[in-house]
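hey m, so remember when u said the tokens were messed up on ur end? i reran from scratch. heres the input so u can diff it against urs
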Amino acid sequence: METAGSVWLVRNPASGSNDEGRLEELDGALKRAGLAVAKTILFPSEPLPTADKLDAAGIATLVVFAGDGTVNAAVTGLYGWGGRILVLPGGTMNLLSIILHGERDAPAILARLDDARVRRIPVIRTASGDALAGLIVGPGTAWNHVREAMRAGDVLRFISETASAIEESTAGSMVICEPAKGCRSEGYSAIMLTPDDKGIIAEGYYAASFADYAQQGLALLRRNFRQGPHDKLGTFEALTCRGLDGEATDLLIDGEPAEGGHDIAFELAHAEVDLITTGG
């Protein structure tokens, strides 16, 4: 795949892998791949590029070196653009980068561009936006506040948010999804939905003990919620999640808070812009 030429680069200085050493590695790898960075956008202090601005500058490839939240905003903001986006692992978990490139760092991905292709990945469409790598719905999303406090280094807030997350995870409105069969009658503290070529994969997470809640909370901090006890609920073209007590439930899309609701509908769709993939 021919990718040499001028590109624009989006990065988020607050993302997990945007330290000085990684940036030096990135710069060298881009040059070895024949990519000249004509402009760097530092998000969120600078706005993400629009299709019109990229086209006006003659840019056909946008490189995004950031975490999943920034990647989501950049990709979905360019729906309909005729160019292509190269997602590189510049965050903490880098879930979309893993989908597109496997467990590779930025230099390894850039070294494989000759064998790259473009792909329109499956996504989960919601009224609050598309999830590119996955989403979580339910009171267990409260642990995201703990993660943010931890990232900010705010010890007092971390302690406070941890107490709140435990309370919310144990006493909040549990969720179920339909038309899944075999949901636990008491519901789940979190339901994880993952887009796949075959449909939306639904998994319900519960806790049999306080230790399980703590384990799941810590796993969510690492964006690896799959460690806790859970039920495989099936694979669907579309489904709806709702709180058992009728209250609105919370939502994380690619790790970022989004507007939830009482009955949240999800359907399988595809990203509306080309993403560069170098294989699994």
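this time it looks ok to me. The two ends are 17 Å apart (CA to CA). if urs says something different then somethings off w ur setup not the seq
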